[in-house]
DinB family protein (Brevibacillus porteri), 158 residues
Amino acid sequence: MNENDLLLLNFEEVRRRSIKVWKAIPKEMLNWKPDDKAFTCGEMIRHVIEGEFLYHQILIQRGSAALSTIPNPYETKEFSTVEEDLAFAKPYREEFLRFVRGLSKSDLESVRIDRSDVGYVRTLGDMLLRIAYHESVHTGQLLDYMRTMGVERPNIWD
């Protein structure tokens, strides 16, 4: 396996496990949140899906400045169901994975992504790992939400 294969496998596995969690949340609990300052379950799912789109734009333009120049298709789309959000996100997800597939080892090591607006500049390879980590953290949060709600949690360690 080369670097791209490993990155793609990681993105696919993280998303597969996220979807297991997302689909296990009862529809009537998608608006639940542990406190007034937290995301609801649905908002967190949307945050992850939208975040991947936004991160992709940052990677393409090599920095956070991209966010002020691109239209965000999620801004006017309200979350309704997991299935609907996944269907809406599918073309953006496929475009993101195509982007990753087309990267060279040199790109991963030498391309710099400027996020100095939030305190860092990192290599493209580092940023790709951060994107998957971001999703994983939120999946863990949703598992905790489910425990707190008393909802059966899926086995993501298959």
Summary: Residues 50 and 74 are 6 Å apart (CA to CA). The longest strand covers residues 112-115.
